[in-house]
């Protein structure tokens, strides 16, 4: 069963020429061989395309579009994937060789699972030094934990997901922050989560923090809250707890960047949502 399972890896790429060769190689050298790699070039202006086309491998499917953002690029992959399971890989990160195998092993042991995560090694720019290791510690239905913004089951876009052929998977386009969280919230009501204790991703830091765009961060959380209000069957306590959590995060983020007036203003903006 494990060997027959096909895994789709979706890789958006924008001006990733410096790192994408290493990312692609990490997929092609997986111990689990039944896979497809869907690479979506999101309007790169560097040598990203050249680096991709240097690979001659039937498991790679290449798509090219004008620059529309990471969510739009991932949506192209989601629309074309054929795997029984799927996951995502950014073009500047790498997968250890047993990343797919270790997560599939967890699925095999428990057929009720819909999502399997794993440990993440947060590393320096050259992937030589480990800064910290993220270790998920949650098992069960992940929606309540996601609403609490718990780091027990969410670091970033690291879940492997069992492909439900009867549903359409899609990221909300136009966001610069929070798109991963919103995507997981959109599917978290429909299955159980668990994680392997193996490292499934080496995450490269130091390439510019998305958290530095604080207005984008605030807008992202506002959008998620509005989506939860309009599209999900959540009770008032769940919505209130989520709102309080995002207010605190945005407030502290502005303070951490020495913007006290914006911090105070953000409390008001969040309160009137």
Could you explain how this protein is built, in words?
With 273 residues, the protein is α/β, with parallel strands linked by helices. The chain folds into two domains: 7-204, Spore Coat Polysaccharide Biosynthesis Protein SpsA, Chain A (Alpha-Beta Complex); 210-271. Helices cover 37% and strands 21% of the residues. Strands 1, 2, 3, 4, 5, 6, 7 and 8 form an eight-stranded mixed sheet that branches. It is globular. The termini are far apart. The mean pLDDT is 92.
Keywords for this structure?
single chain, 273 residues, alpha/beta, Spore Coat Polysaccharide Biosynthesis Protein SpsA, Chain A, 2 domains, eight-stranded mixed sheet, 21% strand
Low-confidence stretches: none
CATH class of the largest domain: Alpha Beta
| Gyration radius from CA atoms, angstroms | 19 Å
**How many β strands by DSSP?**
8
CATH architecture field of the largest domain: Alpha-Beta Complex
H/E topology pattern: EHEHEHEHEEHEHEHHH
- Chain oligomer state: single chain
- Strand percentage lies at 15-25%
| Helix-and-strand structural type | alpha/beta
What is the makeup of the main sheet?
A: 8 strands, mixed
CATH topology of the largest domain: Spore Coat Polysaccharide Biosynthesis Protein SpsA, Chain A
- What would you give as the CATH superfamily of the largest domain? Spore Coat Polysaccharide Biosynthesis Protein SpsA, Chain A
Residue share in helix: 25-40%
- What is the global morphology? globular
Domain count: the total is 2
């Amino acid at each position: 069963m494990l060997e027959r399972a096909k895994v789709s890896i979706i890789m958006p790429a924008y001006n990733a020429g410096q790192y994408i060769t290493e990312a692609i190689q990490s997929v092609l050298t997986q111990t689990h061989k039944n896979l497809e790699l869907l690479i979506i070039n999101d309007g790169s202006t560097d040598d990203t395309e050249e680096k991709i086309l240097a690979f001659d491998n039937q498991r790679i499917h290449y798509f090219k579009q004008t620059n529309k953002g990471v969510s739009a690029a991932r949506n192209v992959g989601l629309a074309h994937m054929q795997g029984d399971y799927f996951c995502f890989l950014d073009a500047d990160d790498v997968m250890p060789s047993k990343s797919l195998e270790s997560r599939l092993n967890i699925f095999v042991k428990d057929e009720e699972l819909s999502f399997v995560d794993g440990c993440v090694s947060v590393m320096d720019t050259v992937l030589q030094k480990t800064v910290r290791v993220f270790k998920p510690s949650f098992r069960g239905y992940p929606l309540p934990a996601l609403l609490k913004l718990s780091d027990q089951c969410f670091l970033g876009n690291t879940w492997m997901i069992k492909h439900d052929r009867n549903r359409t998977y899609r990221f909300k386009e136009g966001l610069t922050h929070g798109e991963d969280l919103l995507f997981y919230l959109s599917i978290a009501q429909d299955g159980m989560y668990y994680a392997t204790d193996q490292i499934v991703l080496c995450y490269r830091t130091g390439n510019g923090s998305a958290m530095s765009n604080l207005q984008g961060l605030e807008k992202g959380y506002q959008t998620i809250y509005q989506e939860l209000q309009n599209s999900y069957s959540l009770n008032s306590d769940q919505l209130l707890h989520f709102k309080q959590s995002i207010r605190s995060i945005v407030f502290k983020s502005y303070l951490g960047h020495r913007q006290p007036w914006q911090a105070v203003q953000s409390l008001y903006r969040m309160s009137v949502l």
